[in-house]
What we know:
The protein is built from 13 helices and 40 strands. By secondary structure, the protein is an alpha+beta fold. α6 runs parallel beside α7 and α12 packs parallel to α13.
Amino acid sequence: MKQILNRYQFDDMVVCYEINDEKQVGLFLYPADMPLEKCANPDTAIDSLVQLKIAGDMYNGAYAPGNTLRNGESTIRMKYVSQKLTEENNVQTVITVMEDERGYQVTHKLSYVQGEKVLRAECEFLNKSAESVKLEMFESVSLSEISPYISGDEAGEIMVHRLQSRWSQEGRLLSQSLEELQLDVSWTKEAVRCERFGQAGSLPVNHYFPFLGVEDRRNHIFWGMQIAHNASWQMEIYRIDENLAISGGLADREFGHWMKNIAPGERFLTPEAIVTVCHTDSADFFTGRLANAGQNAADAGPECEQDLPIVFNEYCTTWGNPSHENICEILKTIKGKGFTYFVIDCGWYKREGVPWDISMGDYDPSVSLFPMGLEQTVQEIRNAGLKPGIWFEIENVGQASEAYNNTEHLLHLDGKPLTTTRRRFWDMTDPWVNQYLTEHVIEFLKKYGFEYMKMDYNDTVGMGCDGYESIGEGLRQNMAAAREFVEKVKKEIPGIVLENCASGGHRLEPGYMALTSMASFSDAHECVEIPVIAANLHRVILPRQSQIWAVIRKTDSLKRISYSVAATFLGRMCISGDVWQLNKEQWAVIDNGIVFYKKIASVIKRGQSYHFGTEIKSIRHPDGWQAVLRIGNNGKAYIVLHTFMKDVPDKISFSLPENCPSDISDLFSWEDKKAEIRNKTITFYDLQQGDTVAVFLE
């Protein structure tokens, strides 16, 4: 028999804990504006808020092994001990203690930060027994009773939303029904149904983002979560009866090759999970709540970042061959154009005749590229009124470097150096490596006075490494040490601006986003799909942190330049390309774009995004059109419209939300374009293939 243990309201979210006669506790959320007469379906079993699996304990039956480690003996043995609500520094935390009679204790924490629209969850395992125990699954959060407003098995009513990710195709929305995922309840209500997904390796956004949304279409409610973790992770959608549950955290033994020994008296803490629930018709509004969970961390970043300054990165100008000569040539052109940062990208360290992408690791500035010393080039950047930045691939070493052969301090797998086509990986837990990187990265940054560092990471460790109780734990430990080194950089060089890059967008998870000022949105440097990817990312990271490339070529038409520049309005503007070879007309389009960007920067920084357009079936070859409306918190808004290669109407209209301002105060395009708003409907006229129009609304 189930009953309510406690209810708490945080902002517009209600947190409900239920308990049964066996002292098992479940957790679910619902919107405060949709009160329930009963907070649970009495015909369903409780699905525990604590999900763990201890090696040697009985697995869940009903065809679960190989599909999920949830709800086995280890979970069933966890019984309720206590619950309390604490408050400190505008943070309220519900602390629930569960315990196994064998001496295993789990403390479940669910925290609310004043002003946010999300909750933050984590679990801590304490071994109070006299013997070591081995965890093979321990999730950060588990929510059940989705949806408590629908009786029965919810047939046809529940949609699952995920964000897929491949290199240069980040953030594609995948929406499927429970039935498409074969999560229908079995006819006996005895067989486990589970969709477990995630990724294994050191690129946390490689295949999927650590994001999950579940929608009750009948009642217009969304539940969702993100996992803040920079290594292998998983999420699960689970049911055995009419109670649907979602959970997530570290990738387990089956999915991520992870096991962890916990000695007597030791503790283990999961990564943070971010969860929310909201009552809305808009999927964009729901995803905006999760993305906006990063605002406090972004606000706490360097002061120079708060007005979203513009970046010039020379990578797509020199393609890995930066030199004092070509940097000075670029600086003559861009000085006074409105840029704040100048980033020297990869290649500054390479030996003569050796490609940049196999040379990283030693990090001695090239004498041939910088014959007067790198300090002279940095001074030229400062003389142009810009803040100097530089590229590092901190954790990897290339096969042409001396570091590549320093195998004693590199990661190993099966007793041999862990090697991919062009790279090996530092053992970031090794004190010698920490000291080496302190000298070659931190002291280097200090010596030359760099104020910005682009941190790239162009490969993945894969499933793990040697040296620990499991290769998955080896990966987790190494990636935790990598994060600690970044924190050391920030401590040693206060105010440094850090760019989070991993082959473009493969580290766009909440933990690294909170650690850094901004992120490279993708490696799609000058592709037609840039605005599609940039718009996708509004669902999962803050636009103020999404650095978007506009690579301008001397052969680009004014229309093409407008297309590229306008894409940067969907995040942070980053310019590169043949800038010293452009004519006045080409530069005029860029200059106008910079002016427009600075007008909308406050809306990029804080606001709510909405997507409009035709279905994009192919990111690589998009057809139709796309528009993104972003409404700021300051009575201002902007719209960025792109058309693609086929099926483009010459006139496009769509309705605006009631809270959207309706006066067009500025318009950006490559030629005179007409746009008007009547009766809360905006219409764009005279559109062509590959066109763009952006409007600023006040």
